[in-house]
Structures are given as structure tokens and as C-alpha cells.
Amino acid sequence: MEIKHLNFSYKNKEIFADLNTKFTDDQLNVIIGSNGAGKTTLLNIIYGFTKASSDLAMTNFPSMPNIIYKFQNMTFFAELTVKQVINFFKSMNDHAITITDSQTRFYNEIIKELLNTKLRLLSGGEYQAVMVYCTSIMDRELYLFDEPLSEVDSYIENLLLELIVSLVVEKKKKVIMTLHQLNKLNSLPAHIVFVGNKKCIFQGDFSQMLHAADIDDIEIAFKKMRQAISC
Ligand SMILES: Nc1ncnc2c1ncn2[C@@H]1O[C@H](COP(=O)(O)OP(=O)(O)OP(=O)(O)O)[C@@H](O)[C@H]1O
């Protein structure tokens, strides 16, 4: 999947100026960048929710019906129970789908005990966990997860990452997610897309990013690359 010549502004605020980048089909794609860099906007454009200028060329992306998107703040009817929401998501598949071991584990360890809880009574982290799980049980070609780890504790973070990676590795799905928890990149088989200064300022894997920044700490690498573009 490739994006060429992405230019985009919200009224007078320019977000992207000729951004070019690629996403891989067989690895988890992780978009990183500072707050306000445009990560959510990029997902919105990929989904087709936000329209960019006519110079944009997007190659090999599935069309909207073949994409499922977990928005950053996904809201649902608060009076529904977790079980009702899961059934709603399941009903949007027109056939039975296979569930990965990681999805089953996530269901047994996290979701099961929440089944009869109404959404309005879930904590922020529990709500996030339910929404990511529900998104993952949809059968689509491309999965977009905007900040799937926000508000969850480190135990759930790891379970969620396993679940998301299993979509790519076991189900051969395409996945693009945004992430602020850079320490997680170390253990992830991921293609990183670093958005900053209205462009893609780096793309590659974890070790290539450290190499590009000439440092062995990902947080410092991020800071260095971020500072370099704001000079
Ligand atoms: N609908 C909108 N109208 C005007 N400005 C917007 C709109 N949506 C986002 N923005 C602005 O565009 C910029 C990019 O926003 P975006 O949400 O894409 O960033 P982000 O990288 O996802 O940030 P974060 O990491 O904080 O979630 C921000 O400065 C934001 O205030």
C-alpha cells in the first residue's frame, strides 16, 4: 500500500505537504509522531473519511467496505452490554470467522468477565479493550487502529499487541495502527512510519530507526529525529 503526494489542510492549517510513504502487507504498520503531527488525519484519509487534494495517489488500499476502523474515541450506545456490542460486531460479518489463539486468550482473560457490564460502567481501559477486541473480530482486509493502547495497563497493552499482531501473522490481514508507547516497538515485528513536519520523516523497522538516529534508545531516537525537523 502506497501513498504519494498527500497534501492536506484543515481550513488554514496545513497538515501534510507532499507526504509520501508505504505500508507493508505482511508486517504490522505503526504510525508514530508527536501530538498533532497528523496520525489520526492520515488514518482518516486512508479510510476515505477525510478527502485530500486531487494530487493524492493511493495504491493497493482496499475500499471503505473492506476496511474496519477503530477510531481514537469510539463511542457506542452506553446502555448496551459488552455482550450486546460483541454480538452487534459479529452480526456485521456475513460468515463465520476464524478466531486466533491470541483473540481467544484476550476474550478469556479480559472480555469474559465484562460481558454483562453496560458500556457506561466500564473504565476507560476496559472500554478501549472491548473496542479493540470488537474491531478485531470483524472480517475485513485492512484494520485501522487509532491509539489502541491508550488508557490500558501494561498487561492489557501486551495482550492487545499480541492480538493485533495475530491478525497480520495468522490471518494475513493488513493492519495500520498509531502508537505513542515507543518502548513497545522493540519487541514488535513492525514497519514504522514516522510522521512529522508534514511529511513522512522515516520509514523502516526498529533497528533501522535506531541506526538512522545513531543511538540505541528508541525514546532518544524519537526525540532526536523530532528535534531535527523542528530546527
Ligand atoms: N476537524 C479538524 N479541524 C481543524 N483542525 C483539526 C481537525 N482535526 C484535527 N485538527 C488539527 O490537525 C492537527 C493534526 O491532528 P491529528 O488528530 O491528526 O493529530 P495526531 O497526530 O493524531 O495527534 P495525537 O497524537 O494528539 O492524537 C492537530 O493540530 C489538530 O488540532
Automatic annotation (TrEMBL):
<feature type="domain" description="ABC transporter">
    <location>
        <begin position="1"/>
        <end position="222"/>
    </location>
</feature>
<keyword id="KW-0813">Transport</keyword>
<dbReference type="InterPro" id="IPR003439">
    <property type="entry name" value="ABC_transporter-like_ATP-bd"/>
</dbReference>
<dbReference type="InterPro" id="IPR050153">
    <property type="entry name" value="Metal_Ion_Import_ABC"/>
</dbReference>
<dbReference type="Pfam" id="PF00005">
    <property type="entry name" value="ABC_tran"/>
</dbReference>
<dbReference type="InterPro" id="IPR027417">
    <property type="entry name" value="P-loop_NTPase"/>
</dbReference>
<comment type="similarity">
    <text>Belongs to the ABC transporter superfamily.</text>
</comment>
<protein>
    <recommendedName>
        <fullName>ABC transporter domain-containing protein</fullName>
    </recommendedName>
</protein>
